[in-house]
Amino acid sequence: MENTSLLESDACFLWHPYSAMNGRARVFPVASARGVRLKLANGEELIDGMSSWWCAIHGYNHPLLNAAIDSQLQDMSHVMFGGLTHAPAVTLAEQLVKLTPEHLENVFFSDSGSVAVEVAMKMAIQYWHAKGQSRQRFLSLCNGYHGDTFGAMSVCDPVTGMHRLFSGILPSQLFAPAPQPGFGEPCREEHIREFRNLMANHAHEIAAVIVEPVVQGAGGMRFYSADYLQQVRSLCDEYEVLLIADEIATGFGRTGKLFACEWADISPDILCLGKALTGGYLTLAATLTTKAIGHTISNNPPGIFMHGPTFMANPLACAVANASIELLLESPWQQRVEQIAQGLEQGLAPCRKLPGVAEVRVLGAIGVVELKQAVDMNAIQPAFVEAGVWVRPFGKLVYLMPAFIMEEEDLAQLCAAVVKVVAAHT
């Protein structure tokens, strides 16, 4: 299809994420992708700073991941998981149990990160139901983000989050202030006081606390104290409340640890994974929990967990997830993430001198330039493309989450483009 025709049809029929159906927001047709580069339909190449919303950690068109898809396709692309099983799913479950924090031994697969959160919330509610208790509320953190489906929206920040429009029809949850101590800082009593008070007053009705460990993602790209997370775990134990860790964005090495919970040396009762699980090839998510929770739900009426996605444990997705995890573990990923962190720190540092910039922060393979005012997407997005990079800001945040394979020269070029464009548009 010709480029002009493609764009016309796109404007006519397609609704893109967080956009209006009025054709005003410019989109850029991609013809192919390889390594860390997107090739546009007009022949231009862009260095991708987003890893396709943080999931393509090995870059694009990786031969080993391609081969895993091709091999699995010869056997079956999909089979229902109700009453059936298959090797890719069993192998992946074994891998996840082995790699994730201790005591997480039961794995439930679903289609996306938001659904993994829905599963976790239903799991927590059904656990307490099985124990004869009606606990149906959740305690979350301000500036948190957990997805776009209804249950997930209800535990996102109700004031500064993206889902204020739906606040009147979402379940009413409890929210503690966003963690104040930054990453690497101690958490003092005053930092955790309001969270503790909410637990003390509402533990009897709280099914679970849900947090994004160490990094609050789409709610503001905030990096917070591992000590705070450790104290949250302790309070959950003290008040007998489950802890859900949403590692959909942070899992598989993004922060410099395989899982962000490791920074605090804690294990949640329920863990949500997605995004990088398949290396960005296919949509797949997992919700892991303890045997105690699994057995409690399974041994009390109704005796089954009430959820079952049609494409649960899709064999193609599980096969490429197994290959992606193997590829990650066999690579010097810690060294690569550390090198990326150093490159981001050095490359984005000039932004600190720009008058429109409030803060620059880096953790692992995450670099954030927080502005004083929200960006004009219609102006800044084409400017990044003209600079030869793909960066997709939101609100006041211009951020980078490059693939782990990105070389020093490409990273330097990516950061230089951010400095140039931010300087020109703030």
Quick recap:
With 426 residues, the chain is an alpha/beta fold.
Fold and architecture overview:
This protein folds into two domains: 3-61 and 332-425, Aspartate Aminotransferase, domain 1 (Alpha-Beta Complex); 76-330, Aspartate Aminotransferase, domain 2. Helix content is 37%, strand content 16%. The protein contains 13 helices and 16 strands. The protein has a seven-stranded mixed sheet, sandwiched between helices. β1 (30-34) and β2 form a beta hairpin. α11 (333-348) runs parallel beside α13 (408-425). The longest helix has 18 residues, at 113-130. It is globular and about 60 Å long. The protein starts with a helix and ends with a helix.
Describe this protein with a few key phrases:
Aspartate Aminotransferase, domain 1; 2 domains; 4-stranded mixed sheet; Aspartate Aminotransferase, domain 2; 426 residues; single chain; alpha/beta; 7-stranded mixed sheet; globular; 37% helix
